[in-house]
């Protein structure tokens, strides 16, 4: 029989992360596009991020037919978090600026590029990047590229930049607990052998 899971955070009930998930408001609206292959991953950080943010939505799929409508949210400027050569580094809002609808592809950069290829309205968005950021604490999953962050870390970094002095660090609490739990489960020794560079 499968272990009972929490219907909200989808962790086993014995390891429910909900008490650690904050309830944060943001000017920026987040739209996270998740490839179906990421849904069942034990470290589904996009889901944790959306649970902790009021102004955020998670969509799962490869081709998003209603994307043009999703991107045309009144009162927002849509842009895509995608660090290629065209991307402009995010900085804090000027007082008179409209807030961003920040579209974040979840998964590897390879999957993100595929999403762009399959969804022309996504590829047409102006692109933004996080600039130089601190290394990931997401030690369990090999970062495909130098400086790659987990989705939840990328979101916290972006919101911290845009909405300073408000901070979004609390969003990482369930993520940190999840990582600690994974490390404990695999054994510290194995972890150090496999993951420390
Ligand atoms: Zn839960």
From TrEMBL:
Would the keyword Nucleotide-binding turn up in this protein's UniProt record? no
Q: Which molecular function terms from Gene Ontology are attached?
A: tRNA-uridine aminocarboxypropyltransferase activity
**Record-level GO BP terms:** tRNA processing
The coiled-coil regions, if any, are: none
Report the residue ranges that make up the DTW domain in this protein. Answer: 2-187
Q: Which residues cross the membrane?
A: none
Q: What is its EC number?
A: 2.5.1.25
Q: Kindly state which keywords UniProt assigns to this record, in alphabetical order.
A: S-adenosyl-L-methionine, Transferase, tRNA processing
Per its UniProt record, what InterPro entries does this chain match? Answer: DTW (IPR005636), DTWD2/TAPT (IPR039262)
Q: Which family does it belong to?
A: Belongs to the TDD superfamily. DTWD2 family.
The identity of this protein, by name, is tRNA-uridine aminocarboxypropyltransferase
